# Entry
Amino acid sequence: MISITRTRMVAVLIVGAVLATTAPSHGGSPSLADRVIEHKLANGMTVLMVERHQAPIVSLNMTFGVGGVNEQVGQTGLAHLYEHMAFKGTRTVGTRDYEKEQAVLAELTRVGTELEQREREESARGHMEGKAPALSQPVQQLQRRFKELQDKAGEYVVGNEMALLYQRHGGVGLNASTGKDITRYVISLPANRLPLWAALESDRMAHPVLREFYKERGVVMEERRLRTDDSPNGLLYETFTSTAFQAHQYGVPTIGWGSDILSLTPAAAEAFFKTYYGPNNATVAIVGDIDPKEVIALIERTFGKIPASPPLQTLVTDEPPQRGERRVEIEFDAEPALAIGYHKPAIGHPDDFVFDVIDEVLTEGVTSRLYSTLVRDKRLAASVLSDTNYPGVRAPNLFVIAATPLAPHTTTEVETAIYEELERLRTEPISAKEFERVLNGLDADLVRSLRSNSGLASQLAFYHTVAGSWRYVVNARDRIAAVTPADVQRVAAQYLIKSNRTVGVLVKKVPEKKMADAGEVMQ
Amino acid sequence: MRRVIREACLVKREAKRGIVMSRSAGRMSFVVMVVLCLMQAAMGLAADLAPNDPRTMRFSTVDFNPPDADRVVLENGMVVYLLEDHELPLVTVNATLRTGSWLDPAEKVGLAGMSGAVMRTGGSVRMSPEEVDEELEQVSATVSIGMAKESGSAVLDVLKKDLKRGLQIFADLLREPAFEESRVDLAKLQALEGIRRRQDSPGSIVGREFAKLLYGGTHPSARETTVRSIESMTREDLVAFHRHTVHPNGIILGVTGDFEKASMLALLREVFGDWARGNVPDVAIPAVPEPDFKVGAVRFVNKDTSQTHLRVGHLTIKETDPDYVAVAIANDILGGSSFRSRLFNDVRTKRGLAYSVGSGLRASVYDQGVWLMRAETKLSSTQEVVNRFVANMERMRNEPVTDLELEEAKEAYVNSFVFSFTSASSIVSRLMDLEYDRLPKDWLQQIRDKVVKLTKEDIQRAAKAHFNPERLRILAVGSGEALSKVLAGFGDVKEITLVPES
# Structure
């Protein structure tokens, strides 16, 4: 197949084991716990460091405790759009003349916001009158003015200058991602380029400029089409998740609903930044060929000057208990797939560790229960996987089992077979051998996690942000080791029950036009 | 704890592999460091600029001498690279096999892939499939075996304490796989399900159909499994494929991690030493006949989507072509370098028309490569994006790149070089790749030296010679009727009708 070295995608929704494990090293080398150096700035920013001197390189992972959960109704997708905007530069980077640019951007924002407000009003009026509205004179005038200002603003832009500086200095893996609970900015650099990173990142934490806002919204709309609208799995998970969560923000797609994305304003993005991007909401993990003392001095000199933001308010919405099975179908021109989710507690809850064991026993590896039964022996499914913390970790979430049937078997047959295995979890204790396999896997994963600077930086910053401390990585292993077979039976009986589950089914539907062409074909 | 289903949005698509040239690795040479310093000096640094302005910061090139691996040839011809790395109690054994799907018979496309899969899952003469899986997973060891077009690969990843047992199982699966019948059947069912599902997403369709459009449907670089080819495969076919193509003298082994060289070699001789040589096939992939360009160059697949998935490009040179480095850097500036590239800036940043946009160059030493531009964009902007592709390609041909662009491309290349040596295993796998392709050990130094010496004129010459408007093939997957109208200006538009696979 054609593969393109730089532009190819890894995966959208379902990827192989992403990361995350636990456990102190039981091997000979110094354990992770002994290698992490933690430093907290007066403004609240946390720095986590691990020295690895194998090669003169360093990986950086800046993680903010903000994500889709922090959005308001009507502004979904804002956390993610802001993450895109954070690549647009600052008052010095990305501009030819900020003084002049600033005035044009302010006017562009004013005109753009007014234009969109009027367009919405006229469109609503048109709907009421049952006809497509002709654009009024004022709107047309605003459109022209908007276009002029956009072109004028463009003259001041040095496109993608921040990314360009990173690349020019040998940076690799520059990216950012937005999830439900966190937003992260990552890069790996030759180790002596740390001052470049500190200058760029402290600048973007202190003085970001939201230039090219309206164009970037268009980019995000294309991203939504790619990830969700045209992707059978993307659409399945969006619908499944919003069915499982009816109150909590976890039910809202991180990319945002299309109409919300198109209504986001620069003012909303600016306010979002001011609320959530303070140093007190940031953790940076730095792993590689570093001298921690020098790194601390550098970070104090740069980030240390940024004032803390006001403390964040606690989110108030809890998902009410589910009272009865929810089922939802998604029709798509694609082969069938199945997702089953059970509500369960958040990270750190005693039962969450039991789910870690259940997850491993059910789907980790080809000897796992669901793989060996559904895929290998009964041959009902082509694939099966599970996830213990979907779609976020910080708030109560879902234990998800997902599978694709192997034709001619149906999602119904696969679903029934999965429930039989869940029933087995309730009725018979897991074996000592299975439990040993789980623990061996966790221990080995911890050792392996130290192989990659960027992987380790990712884990440390992740757990520090969502579990309160990077030490979660170390402590969780012992919590998991303490799980008993009786715990597994109890948790299965308590959570893995019909009334607590949501089932999403991807149903094949061939577009009508093609059906007509093909006569009576298809299932 | 493992997060499997991910719902995170990235600012850009993750690249699967490295930089401009997938082989852009190699040892840091003194020569290049000197040249780079000169280059930086020539840029004229203003002394009065603020020291904390990231736009004007300068750093020396990192000084790094990566460790070198040992190379040993066993008596039966197996080549072994060894590089100790005692940081973690882990050992990785990586084998490259001189086989691959280029060997698939025309009526049994998929044979190599199926053979590789069942070598792993079908047990060995000593152990049943279930015993293999149980023993490996109980100690968190992994063995994976797979076949690519031009080579096969087998990897063992094991904790040091389980090395001996892991290596024995690994060797058994390589040497004497049992291809148990039930696992052959399972692999066939899985392959058939894969066929059934491969038209599900537009991204999968566009990649495969574009390859067929360029190479032709029967070429090893484009052909696909069919229900018939999979159903016709028997256990005997798999056994024969293994027997005829997997031999010790066709294997290059790379061993990295926490071991001691002498005892590792003894262990390797114990498990592989008495494996007899065989006839190793030499990769030979047929050239593609120059297509008839009078035939329309625009094809579309009608799929009910909101975006058009676009691929625009043509076949190109091999990696060993004298122009390769110049074409690679031209491609880097045009669309290969993500944020830095012209296509990204033009189509995404300035116009907001695509999330994923760029160009790619893929070449090997055996086969004609592919050069292409790609994007996904809503139906209504399809035409504009194709226009931008053509305009940017023409600009590469008609005017030299700017001094700044070339400088940036060179610096990005040289400064990120160190990432080719992040681990013992990355150092060793590069050596294995070079030996597999029979390229000189200093091949990478040669490439790097060429990159540093490139001029704007070299880039333009390469673009003129190798980005050919008259050879462009356009493939679009999207909503049919409207799409064919939108594409009409770019040539003779024809529909590719997908055969239902379920």
Q: What stands out?
A: Chain A touches chain B through 138 residues (CB under 8 Å).
